[in-house]
Design a protein that fits this description.
Elements lengths: L1 H29 L2 H5 L7 H15 L9 H16 L1 H10 L13 H11 L2 H4 L8 H5 L4 H11 L5 E6 L4 H17 L5 E6 L4 H7 L6 E6 L2 E4 L6 H11 L5 E3 L5 H6 L1 H4 L3 E6 L6 H9 L5 E6 L6 H6 L8 E5 L8 E4 L5 H9 L12 H7 L11 E7 L6 H12 L6 E7 L4 H8 L8 E7 L5 E6 L8 H16 L6 E4 L11 H21 L3 H49 L19 E2 L5 H6 L6 E7 L4 H12 L8 E7 L4 H10 L8 H9 L12 E5 L4 E5 L6 H11 L16 H5 L5 H10 L5 E2 L14
Parallel strand pairs: 1-2, 5-7, 6-7, 10-11, 15-17, 16-17
Antiparallel strand pairs: 1-3, 3-4, 6-8, 8-9, 10-12, 12-13, 13-14, 16-18, 18-19, 19-20
Helix pairs in contact: 1-6, 3-4, 4-5, 10-12
């Protein structure tokens, strides 16, 4: 009996489990994106995209009015989202279809179904939730779509983008407000986008959005976050705040003439919008932003008494919004539209068809490319009739005659324009050099390539604006339309100068102001996660700056101490050595350069492997003369220590006695050749070695040459006279064994070193080349 009761209990539980979870399990296994799109599991991305576009057009709710069209369109969109993403497609092929928000890589198959069916099953909690709202599905953004289409389009219209995710329950509360806002702003021309942070993490990181829900605006490639309460009016004001200031100028009776007559300076048509509203409608601002590069917009509030004159002047019906478009003729509008329900499509068509003046001035390359496009097909030929003229009063009548002729033109194949020779000198020189003519001239041209190649011909007889000139121009235009070979000259045009480039500084200042304002705005609302990179950069720069200042301060303090010690030691030196009185002018602080010793350790780096163009200036000395010569040497070369290519060393011949002899043997032309040197050689023939004390070498290790400085004793006469007074019996002539030089005599050996250094810097010293530098491996043992 107990076994039977246990069996019945198990059956009841099984029935309950099937009843609870059967629907969700069945529904999970029914959806197959491959079947929905009708493609195989091995279909390529191009094939999937092609099928998706065809099915999306077929089942779009706006075209297909059948009851199940919307649900089918959602399934098609959902299937394309899965199969167009390689990672999600691989997860589906591996694990099968599940809920969209399920992380395929974290849970095994069995546990995943248990988690989905029990904890998050919508039917179990009686929580109705569709896979994704149709409005959001239509505006979903992917990274490539955003970078290739949305971002460039943001320079023509602002975008309002919502950051959401599948299981963002807070997003549900703002959904009705978001729908109403989209229905209101999208028809006005505002771009709408939705980013699912669960599927488009790369795009979310690029936008700087790290939490849901978030709403941001995009305009001119710049992202701005919405920080206020999500209310329909706040979102509308946020979009309006994204637009540049003074995009539409308010016009009254006192300013409308100035507004209309300024077309010549800006080279743009004028649009006057008449409506009864104190604030400029957002629809007008959005259209003004879309065509800001072509048309200048003004707004007239017909409800004000200050606008009655302009309303009466153009006979405006005050019961319906009206738009007047003016070109060169400011007395009569070139086009008019009037409608009670002004729509974006009507305004777009109205402005787009009139975005150029009748005869615009070519002020930049972009305008030239649009006005005179490159020939693509025979039926789409566009011939440009270009007047090369000047800005002076003598050209006024000529220009007006050309404008009159262009205003009577009704053929779409002809485009009229003019340039000022002073503003576009390279272009005019290219077009006028073959005929050797000067302005004013009319040139007929056709562009053949985007690189600048054109076919052109100058109007025969020139252009003075007379009736004969107009008749001749009309005949030649007729010939050109019948036979394109009428254009006989070929040229490569340079890129046009941007005549409005002088406004770059103002644009840069405005951009800098916008970024500073955005920085303050983000800081005010404590958007710390987005501000952390900027703050980190600022604090890093400050740390490096203050760290450098502190290190420099400590290094200066360390250098002061040795200088003070030298100053206190100098009196003792003068008292102990009376012979140093002539050198009592001790150099001030930092008046010496660093001189390193040339040894077998530093020989390779300081000479053999010296960088190209660098020279090592080497002083030859002995142990006895080391202190005196180093002090004098450093003082003489101090003025040249600023050079980055000069290095200073000394060589002790008491340690390396053979090196100088080897160097002189390698370069025989470096030996002295005058009579004095010959006498010295004969006198020194009995000595065992030559005396190189006080010699200075400029060694170029890379090119293997050296320049040599031989000491000249300028204080010899005074020295000899003093010795003759003190030691009258001493002979002034040199004996077989050389007399030891005194401290004063050694000091004066380098008197003319400064002049020699100047010649070294000028490159006028003789150069002695050697096949290879002698080795410096051994140290001569001292006796």
């Amino acid at each position: 009996m107990g076994v039977w009761s246990a069996f019945v209990t198990c059956c009841v539980w099984a029935i309950l489990l099937v009843a609870l979870f059967g629907d969700s399990l069945a529904s999970a296994s029914e959806f197959d994106p491959y079947k929905v799109l009708g493609v195989s599991r091995h279909a390529s991305q191009a094939e999937i995209k092609k099928v998706y576009k065809r099915l999306a057009r077929e089942w779009h709710p706006d075209k297909n009015k059948s009851p199940g069209a919307e649900d089918m369109f959602i399934k098609i969109t959902k299937s394309y989202e899965i199969l167009s993403n390689e990672e999600r497609r691989a997860n589906f092929d591996r694990f099968g279809q599940m809920d969209e928000n399920q992380n395929f890589a974290r849970a095994p198959q069995g546990f995943r179904h248990y988690q989905d069916s029990f904890y998050f099953d919508e039917s179990f909690f009686h929580f109705h939730r569709t896979s994704r709202d149709f409005t959001d599905s239509k505006h979903l953004l992917h990274y490539n779509h955003y970078m290739n289409e949305v971002l460039p389009d943001s320079f023509k219209r602002p975008y309002l983008i919502k950051i959401t995710s599948e299981w963002c329950f807070t997003c549900i509360h703002i959904e009705p407000i978001w729908k109403d806002t989209v229905l209101e702003l999208e028809p006005l021309g505002v771009g709408i986008g939705v980013v699912d942070i669960g599927y488009e993490r790369q795009l979310a990181n690029h936008l700087g959005a790290h939490r849901t829900p978030s709403i941001l605006g995009l305009i001119n490639g710049k992202v701005t976050f919405f920080h206020y309460a999500v209310v329909r009016e706040h979102l509308r004001q946020f979009v309006e705040s994204l637009l540049p200031q003074k995009l539409v100028e308010k016009v009254t009776d006192s300013s409308y003439l100035e507004f209309l007559n300024s077309w010549h300076e800006e080279n743009k048509p004028r649009v006057l919008m008449f409506d009864v509203a104190s604030n400029i409608p957002l629809l007008y601002k959005l259209n003004a932003f879309a065509y800001k590069d072509y048309v200048r917009f003004g707004y007239v509030d017909m409800g004000l008494t200050e606008t009655s004159e302009v309303v009466q002047r153009f006979n405006i019906n005050t019961y319906a919004p009206t738009m007047l478009l003016f070109k060169e003729n400011t007395d009569k509008p070139a086009d008019v539209i009037q409608a009670r329900g002004m729509k974006k499509q009507i305004i777009d068509e109205f402005v787009s068809n009139n975005r150029f003046l009748l005869v615009p001035r070519l002020v930049n390359q972009k305008l030239f490319d649009e006005l005179c496009p490159v020939k693509q097909f025979h039926r789409r030929r566009k011939y440009c009739v270009l007047l090369v003229t000047g800005e002076g009063e003598q050209f006024v009548s000529v220009n007006e005659a050309f404008f009159d002729f262009a205003s009577s033109n009704t053929k779409e194949v002809l485009r009229f324009a003019y340039v000022y020779q002073r503003q576009q000198q390279p272009l005019c020189d290219t077009l006028l050099k073959k005929d050797d003519t000067s302005p004013p001239q009319v040139i007929l041209l056709e562009r053949r390539s985007a690189t600048g190649r054109v076919l052109y011909r100058t109007l025969t007889g020139g252009w003075n604006g007379s009736d004969d000139d107009k008749h001749r121009l009309h005949e030649q235009l007729e010939l050109l339309q019948r036979d394109s070979s009428y254009l006989t000259h070929d040229a490569m045009l340079p890129e046009l100068n941007n005549e409005f480039a002088s406004m770059f500084l103002i644009q840069w200042m405005n951009t800098a102001y916008d970024y500073l304002a955005q920085f303050y705005f983000d800081l005010l609302y404590s958007n710390w996660r987005e501000m952390m990179p900027v703050l980190s950069l600022i604090f890093s720069a400050l740390f490096i700056l203050f760290g450098t200042v502190i290190i420099q301060a400590f290094s200066d303090a360390g250098e002061d101490k040795p200088a003070k010690q030298k100053a206190t030691d100098s009196p003792k030196t003068e008292q102990s050595s009376p012979g140093q009185e002539s050198t009592s002018s001790r150099p001030p602080k930092k008046n010496f350069v660093e001189v390193t010793e040339l040894t077998d350790i530093t020989y390779m780096s300081n000479l053999v492997r010296l960088k190209p163009g660098h020279i090592n200036v080497v002083l030859i000395l002995t142990d006895a003369s080391k202190q005196v010569l180093l002090r004098k040497f450093a003082k003489e070369v101090y003025s040249f220590s600023g050079s980055q290519t000069l290095h200073y060393s000394f060589l002790n011949v008491d340690k390396h006695s053979q090196w100088m002899d080897s160097l002189m043997e390698s370069a025989p032309d470096a030996r002295p050749s005058d009579s004095l040197d010959e006498e010295e050689e004969e006198e020194d023939s009995t000595s065992s070695k030559s005396d190189y004390t006080g010699h200075v070498l400029a060694l170029n290790g890379h090119k293997k040459y050296f320049c040599i400085f031989r000491p000249v004793f300028t204080g010899e006469e005074a020295e000899c006279s003093r010795w003759s007074d003190e030691e009258p019996k001493a002979s002034r002539s040199r004996s077989g064994s050389r007399r030891k030089a005194t401290t004063l005599e050694i000091h004066h050996k380098l008197d003319r070193l400064g002049l020699w250094m100047e010649r070294l810097m000028e490159g006028t010293l003789p150069r002695h080349y050697v096949p290879a530098w002698p080795g410096l491996d051994t140290i001569t043992p001292q006796k």
